UniProtKB/TrEMBL annotation:
It comes from Haloactinopolyspora alba. The record marks R162, K219 as: Positions MEP for the nucleophilic attack. It is an enzyme of class 2 (transferase). GO terms for biological process: isopentenyl diphosphate biosynthetic process, methylerythritol 4-phosphate pathway. This is 2-C-methyl-D-erythritol 4-phosphate cytidylyltransferase.
Length: 244
């Protein structure tokens, strides 16, 4: 692989998560007996190609996050782990995490704690694609629903062909300098609400490359998603248990 430096993962977990309706930040809601962020940390710790971690958490949750990092990550990463507090929106939280990435990392993954079941292998696949020369990489899956564009009165305007569309996930991976520039350009333009980091890179004119996503990298947003996550974890536990 053509990378001279290392890869760092910025895990953004500083959302307030009101939509989940569980009270408290989404990343600290439990699934399979542990907070969402713990599962995400465990996947990062299990990724062979990730050296450093920066976890971005809501202000006031830094101590709790430190303990979870100790439990899930300690001794499993070759590099450093840091916890920093997040910002008022996702883009700002990523920027704060990015500024805490160690100097020897030349590849940066940005991962949502809300996609806490994304497997370690997906993180490694994204790092590998960047290390092989892509500036920006997103994992994505074909869409199963037909999507319609609508106007403000809910009138359908058009139906983009499904074969042209992908549902994009995280971790998204970047050459560090590319992501840093994309964020500073966005700040200079006054853009604060990018839907994801790849869209900021798209604005710089650089190509963004798509790799195969993973079903388990789905985003936990609703109570239904939480129930699906419980099922995924229970199934994984059952298949890991020794046969009776
Ligand atoms: O709200 P949503 O699920 O789209 O957030 C995606 C990810 O961004 C979540 O993991 C959330 O914790 C994170 N986020 C953040 N800081 C914010 C808002 C969201 O780190 N201010």
């Amino acid at each position: 692989m053509s990378t001279e430096g290392k890869a760092a993962c910025v895990l953004v977990a500083a959302g307030r998560g009101e939509r989940l309706g569980e009270g408290g930040p989404k990343a600290f809601v439990r699934v399979g007996g542990r907070p969402l962020i713990w599962h995400a940390l465990r996947a990062i710790a299990g990724a062979d190609l990730v050296s450093h971690l920066v976890a971005v958490v809501p202000a006031g949750y830094e101590r709790q996050a430190d303990e979870l990092v100790d439990d899930a990550v300690a001794g499993r990463l070759s590099g450093t782990s840091r916890v920093v507090s997040g910002g008022e929106n996702r883009q700002r939280s990523v920027a704060l995490g990015l500024s805490a990435v160690p100097a020897d990392a030349d590849i940066v993954l940005v991962h949502d704690a809300a996609r806490c079941l994304a497997p370690s292998g997906l993180l490694d696949a994204v790092v590998r694609a960047v290390a092989h020369g892509q500036d920006a990489v997103v994992p994505g899956l074909p869409v199963v629903d037909t999507l319609k564009r609508i106007d403000e009165r809910s009138r359908v305007i058009d139906t983009p062909p499904r074969s042209d569309l992908r549902a994009v996930q995280t971790p998204q991976g970047f050459r560090r300098a590319v992501l840093t520039r994309a964020h500073s350009d966005a700040e200079a333009r006054g853009d604060t609400d990018a839907p994801d980091d790849a869209s900021l890179v798209e604005r710089t004119g650089l190509p963004v490359h798509l790799v195969a996503g993973h079903q388990e990298a789905f985003k936990i947003t609703t109570g239904h998603d939480l129930a699906v996550a419980e099922t995924v974890l229970a199934r994984a536990r059952a298949s890991a248990a020794p046969a009776p």
